[in-house]
Every structure is written in C-alpha cells, then in structure tokens.
Amino acid sequence: MSYMKVVAYTHSPDSATVLYGFANMFVLGFLWAAPGGTGCALPAYLSREKLTELFHPYRPWCSVGWPRTFSPTSSDFCGFRESAS
C-alpha cells in the first residue's frame, strides 16, 4: 500500500473517509514499527547465545539467497524483472 494514497484519504471532506485514512495510517505505521522495534529490542533483551540461536534458521538465506537477491548482475534484481523493451 502506498503512503500517499493513505494520506490522500485523510484530506477528504467526508469524515468516514478521513477516519479510514487515519486508521490505515496507524496500521501502516505499526507494520513498519513492529519489525524495527523487535530488531532493536531483541539484542537488548536476549543474551548473545539466545540471539545467535534465534538466527540459525536464517543462515541459508544469508549465505545463498541474500547475495543473489541483491546482485546487480542478476536479471531478477530485488524482485524486479528487466523489461523486454
């Protein structure tokens, strides 16, 4: 969902549409803040052993998938395919 579409709903003269816009802004804010807050809180809360234990399932993606995903030589760079034109 695009932020500007949600912001546009908050500028409507209709109060129900404004409520819809602010409610969705709250949801989008939560969807961005929850992973960020988790990423900041887990290292502060967990011990080093528990933190490294938590990230064992991510090892295959970090070693194989991540470099391939962000490789500029890939034809599928970050999920965007090159157009045929």
Describe this structure in words.
The longest helix is centred in the middle third of the chain and has 31 residues, at 15-45. The protein starts with a helix and ends with a strand. It has four helices and two strands; from the N terminus they run ααααββ. The mean pLDDT is 79. It is elongated and about 55 Å long. The protein is mostly helical and 85 residues long. It has helices spanning 3-10, 15-45, 48-54, 59-69; strands spanning 76-77, 80-81. The chain folds into two domains: 1-46; 55-85, no CATH class.
Compile the SSE list and pairings.
Elements: H1 3-10, H2 15-45, H3 48-54, H4 59-69, E1 76-77, E2 80-81
Antiparallel strand pairs: 1-2
Task: Output the keywords.
single chain; mainly alpha; two-stranded antiparallel ribbon; 67% helix
* Fraction in helix: 55-70%
Strand order of the largest sheet: 1-2
Tell how many strands the DSSP assignment holds: 2
Order of helices and strands: HHHHEE
Average of per-residue pLDDT values: 79
